[in-house]
Amino acid sequence: MIERVKDEDVFKKALRDVFLKTDKNNLFLNETLDISYNEECLIDNAPSSLMFIWDDFIWVNKNEEGTYDAMIWFRINRDCRSKEEFFDEYFWLSSSTEENNLELLKCAITFARTTSIKYISSNIFENEDRKESLKNLYKKLGYKKQQSYYIAKL
User: What are the chain's domains?
Assistant: First the structure.
């Protein structure tokens, strides 16, 4: 069952559940530099109640066992270069089915369309198992590739 997170305690429980169920190989942000998602860092920087209303929009999937197995998190980004608002994917982690993952994305897109936001952005990590299927999905949804992002160790 998909639900929108509007409470810090639900966010923390859902994040912990999702981390427990996720293959640790899928937590890498950059494999070659050994950078990965950090559960405690995300929890420590959890959105406040007001941020759940104005800036951070999170949907989770609660499975039949009553635990969470997927989370998608979007943030409103007010781009000072263009004066446009973007609905930016910030975090998407899942051990759920493709069907549930698509439902999470659909919820985010449906919500964004009810606002004055004109643009949505999502990302794909190079080491993403579903890289090609996500590229195809984003193309079908009308996304255009905008940039490549590079990272190096100093």
Answer: 2-140 (3.40.630.30)
- Report the alpha-carbon angle 37-39-49, nearest 5: 115
Q: Which residues lie below 8 Å from residue 110, measured CB to CB, with a gap of 6+? A: none
Name the pairing type of β-strands 28-30 and 2-5: unpaired
- Whether the pLDDT of residue 139 is over 80: the answer is yes
CA atoms of 12 and 139, how far apart (whole Å) = 32
Token output for 24: 């640790």
Q: How far apart are CA 148 and CA 118, in angstroms?
A: 22
Distance CA 6, CA 68 (A): 15
Query: What tokens does 59 get?
Result: 């949907």
pLDDT one-digit tens code per residue, 58-69:
999 999 999 999
Contact 22, 76 (CB under 8 A): no
